[in-house]
Design brief:
Number of strands: 0
Shape: elongated
Structural class: mainly alpha
Helix content: 55-70%
Number of domains: 1
Order of helices and strands: HHHH
Strand content: under 5%
Number of helices: 4
Largest sheet: none
Distance between the termini: 79 Å
Radius of gyration: 26 Å
Length: 116
């Protein structure tokens, strides 16, 4: 059973590509062209197999999105460290609100209170 025709009979490949690209751009996407060194091309093939991606485009999209998600946490941590480093806090006054403490820090504080 064949799939339903998307474009009318008689449209050229150029017309179909133009319509497809226009729809992609309207949704916020973009068409990109890359030149890859042999090592990068081999890595792309490996990514495609590892991610079980059907196309190279799908592999690149998955890799970019995954890397972006993992970097968000790293950027947040670096920003937090920079903010802490820029803030001058005296050691005796470095008290945080209870809800800002991690579970481990709360346990350690409770143990210290019991010991004193």
């Amino acid at each position: 059973m064949s799939r339903q025709r998307v474009f009318p009979i008689g449209t050229t490949a150029t017309e179909r590509v133009e319509a497809s690209l226009k729809a992609l751009v309207e949704r916020g996407g973009a068409r990109k062209t890359f030149r890859l060194k042999p090592e990068a091309n081999a890595a792309l093939k490996q990514l495609q197999r590892m991610l079980d991606a059907k196309t190279e485009t799908e592999a690149v999209e998955l890799a970019i999105l995954t890397m972006c998600d993992s970097m968000k946490g790293a950027v947040a941590a670096v920003t937090q460290r920079a903010t802490i480093a820029a803030t001058k806090i005296e050691p005796n006054r470095a008290v945080q609100p209870r809800e800002a403490l991690s579970l481990t820090a709360r346990r350690q504080a409770a143990v210290a209170r019991r010991a004193s």
